[in-house]
Amino acid sequence: MTYRVEFRPLAAEQTIGLSADAYVALVRALGIVSRDPFDETTTLATPDVHVRRVVFGGAGMASFYIDPAAELISVFAVVWAG
Questions:
Q1: Tell me, what's the pLDDT at 82?
Q2: CA 59 to chain CA centroid, nearest Å
Q3: Which CATH class is domain 4-80?
């Protein structure tokens, strides 16, 4: 099963300043996450079982909410320190 990935408005806005390489790294990371968003080898857990994070491009992190019933990943924050 592959989850659909959507960006919440704020997260979409936060991607505007990413370099092309950073954006590609984000898309690749979310592509991996979409196959199994609960995989502890590719995502970072939080106290809320449905909220996880993924590191991308060596200097970025995206936070997302998982809705298993809808098979949906909602990205709500993107941070880039590069």
A1: 76
A2: 14
A3: alpha beta
3-state secondary structure of 11: helix
CA-closest candidate to residue 27, choices 44, 38, 11: 11
Strand ordering across the sheet containing 72-80: 4-7, 72-80, 60-67, 51-56, 44-45
Using CA atoms, how far residue 45 sits from 22, 52, 59, in Å, is: 22, 5, 18
Is residue 8 within 8 A of residue 75, CB to CB? The reply is yes
- The pLDDT of 25-41, averaged and rounded, is 97
Nearest to 66 by CA among 10, 3, 14, 15: 3
82 is written with which tokens?
A: 């590069």
Side chain identity, residue 16? I
Q: Where are the domains of the chain?
A: 4-80
Quote the pTM value: 0.94
